[in-house]
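Lecture 7 notes: from sequence to structure.

We start with a single chain of 157 residues. Read the sequence below before looking at the structure.
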Amino acid sequence: MKLFFFAIGVVITQHAQAQEKLLVQAVLDPNVHVVEAVKRDCALETMVGDWVLESVSKRHPGSAKLHAGDKAGNGTLLKVTIVNVVGVGGGAYSGPKSMTVRAELLQSGKVIATTTKERTSGGGAFGGMKGTCAIFGRVAKTLGSDVAAWVHSGPGK
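Now the structure, written as tokens:
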């Protein structure tokens, strides 16, 4: 009987976690070097933030972006910091593109969990036909899924 109530408690807790709204913020670490053309043309913070929000919202409906200057208050903030960018203009012709992000879950301003995720792409099949921003978009989309999976799995596991 105790096992039954424990199992129900776990399901209810997981359901509550899955329904919790998150505030998502993506920023570029001020110490990371990004080629100026990539920074200007690709808007990596926006790209990463949009994909993380889209992926997280599947399990946390009502989640929203936290814009620069806004305060998270007592809500749960998922802060994604781009800590490394490898790639220049020239699409697939200039080599693979990669990004590393640090994802932090903050509750009332305090970090409760953190992880680092990295992805690389050369553009895929016929990669020479894709531009630099499109390749970084593919990387950002995958990172968004990776971060959302980490959040859903229960950070710290």
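The radius of gyration is 18 Å. Keep this in mind for problem set 3.
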